[in-house]
TrEMBL record:
<protein>
    <recommendedName>
        <fullName>Aspartokinase</fullName>
        <ecNumber>2.7.2.4</ecNumber>
    </recommendedName>
</protein>
<feature type="binding site">
    <location>
        <position position="74"/>
    </location>
    <ligand>
        <name>substrate</name>
    </ligand>
</feature>
<feature type="binding site">
    <location>
        <position position="185"/>
    </location>
    <ligand>
        <name>ATP</name>
    </ligand>
</feature>
<comment type="similarity">
    <text>Belongs to the aspartokinase family.</text>
</comment>
<dbReference type="InterPro" id="IPR036393">
    <property type="entry name" value="AceGlu_kinase-like_sf"/>
</dbReference>
<dbReference type="InterPro" id="IPR054352">
    <property type="entry name" value="ACT_Aspartokinase"/>
</dbReference>
<keyword id="KW-0547">Nucleotide-binding</keyword>
<dbReference type="InterPro" id="IPR041740">
    <property type="entry name" value="AKii-LysC-BS"/>
</dbReference>
<dbReference type="InterPro" id="IPR005260">
    <property type="entry name" value="Asp_kin_monofn"/>
</dbReference>
<comment type="pathway">
    <text>Amino-acid biosynthesis; L-methionine biosynthesis via de novo pathway; L-homoserine from L-aspartate: step 1/3.</text>
</comment>
<keyword id="KW-0808">Transferase</keyword>
<dbReference type="Pfam" id="PF22468">
    <property type="entry name" value="ACT_9"/>
</dbReference>
<dbReference type="InterPro" id="IPR018042">
    <property type="entry name" value="Aspartate_kinase_CS"/>
</dbReference>
<dbReference type="InterPro" id="IPR001048">
    <property type="entry name" value="Asp/Glu/Uridylate_kinase"/>
</dbReference>
<keyword id="KW-0067">ATP-binding</keyword>
<keyword id="KW-0220">Diaminopimelate biosynthesis</keyword>
<keyword id="KW-0418">Kinase</keyword>
Length: 438
């Protein structure tokens, strides 16, 4: 049998007892005949604690040193996990990201993987050992310094290794049973999605669903590596994230089983799920003169400040005034920087005023079936209106519709949309096993 890469998140290895439990699971996979490579996150909230410590000693810690510090979290869990596996009579060896051949650029805190050369991992599994790799870290090709991939980066490590090792599957173990049609903490009737495409998962992840790191899904799509997101707290089948082609193969395989009472029949859903995001803010530039080049000037300034924008809306200018309003959303964390940069443009552009609102949230309906089914937007907006929620902005992609609403009304709007598209499960409630869901 082939290679299986398993990734365990922080909530799955939060203490000695959890580490022992995970070790048993790994040994069982190995005994079933697979070569097993494990990627592990730091225990529980270790990364947050290390970050707090860093800020206690320095308001602006140096990037190189911060990466040195944070990668220690994964070193602890990887070594403990290797010991726990050894204690079960199974050989195991732990490796740092650098030892595992995870080569990155040199952007501390948000490094990108540029190559994976897993020679030592191949040797370890060839010798019959389980290889344990520290997630979220690598080594810079140029400076040879240790780097980190950004918060939640262990998912990306796992998929990158799985691709380099040509594994059969990359299993991502977390504290929920899989990817849900909405956050079960908001919609208790949310259902687990059996199989979903990379494209839909990317839209969900980019729009606030916290289940998988965006970059990990991009990496999986590029390499066509199937991801199986599942709970380390149960043995249930989780959610498969695969290509659209593989997805229709999986769906038609279950259809031919219809009637024999074995595999559940899955249908291609028009809507996969409803994601929400509370991390954005909205800025409106009021009274912008409606002439060539003003939008370019405003957005160049924001680009120069390294701010990533999400939605942008420009109103038709009122004929009488020749002025228009431009609104956009951006990460709240960048709100201050954006306002300061725009304030400097006031005389040059000659706008009337700037408005900043961080009491907003975004709700996104995602589904590949939107391409071929009319009336989805109308139904979505109607559901939101019936819940008494006002829509402030709208944006769409081919397979997504997003709206910005008052933050206080996110939960109501998510529930309403979920119900309107018949995503509510009815009987089985989603189980959240604990942890922060990170
Ligand atoms: N430990 C890191 C974090 O908490 C990486 C990860 O968990 O994937 O962000
Ligand atoms: Mg973590």
């Amino acid at each position: 049998m082939g290679i299986v890469v398993q990734k365990y998140g922080g909530s799955s290895v939060s203490d000695a007892a959890s580490i022992k439990r995970v070790a048993q699971r790994i040994v069982a996979t190995k005994k079933a005949g697979h070569d097993v490579v494990v990627v592990v996150s730091a225990m529980g909230d270790t990364t947050d604690e290390l970050l707090d410590l860093a800020h206690d000693v320095s308001p602006l810690p140096d990037g190189r040193e911060l990466d040195m510090l944070l990668t220690a979290g994964e070193r602890i869990s990887m070594a403990l996990l290797a010991m726990a596996i050894g204690n079960l009579g199974q050989q195991a060896q732990s490796f740092t990201g650098s030892q595992a051949g995870v080569i990155t650029d040199s952007a501390h805190g948000r490094a990108k993987i540029i190559d994976v050369t897993p020679g030592r991992i191949t040797r370890a599994i060839g010798d019959g050992a389980v290889a344990i790799v520290a997630g979220f870290q690598g080594v810079s090709q140029d400076s040879k310094d240790i780097t980190t991939l950004g918060r939640g980066g262990s998912d990306t490590t796992a998929v990158a290794l799985a691709a380099a090792l040509e594994a059969d599957v990359c299993e991502i173990y977390t504290d929920v049973d899989g990817i849900f049609t909405a956050d079960p903490r908001i919609v208790p009737a949310a259902r687990q999605i059996p199989v979903i495409s990379y494209e839909e998962t990317l839209e969900m992840a980019a729009n606030g669903a916290k289940i998988l790191h965006l970059r990990c899904v991009e990496y999986a799509r590029r390499n066509d590596m199937p991801i199986h997101v599942r709970s380390s707290f149960s043995s249930k089948e989780g959610t498969w994230v695969v290509s659209a082609e593989r997805m229709s193969d999986m769906l038609s395989a279950t259809l031919t089983n219809e009637g024999d009472g074995e595999a559940p029949v899955m249908e291609q859903a028009i809507i996969s799920g409803v994601a929400h995001d509370r991390s954005e803010a909205k800025i409106t530039v009021v009274g912008v003169p409606d002439k060539v080049g003003e939008a370019a000037r405003i957005f160049e300034t924001l680009a120069d400040a390294q701010i990533n924008l999400d939605m942008i809306v420009q109103n038709v200018s009122a004929a009488a005034t020749g002025l228009t309003d431009i609104s956009f959303t951006l990460p709240r964390a960048d709100g201050q920087t954006a306002m300061t940069s725009l304030a400097r443009l006031k005389d040059e552009v000659g706008y009337a005023q700037l408005q900043y609102d961080d009491g907003v949230g975004k709700i996104s309906l995602v589904g590949a079936g939107m391409r071929t089914n009319p009336g989805i937007s109308a139904k979505f907006f109607k559901a939101i209106a019936d819940a008494g929620v006002n829509i402030e902005m709208i944006s769409t992609s081919e397979i997504r519709i997003s709206v910005v609403v008052n933050e206080q009304q996110i939960d109501d709007a998510v529930s309403a949309a979920h119900r309107a598209f018949d995503l509510d499960a009815g009987e089985v409630e989603a189980v959240v096993y604990g942890g922060s869901g990170r």
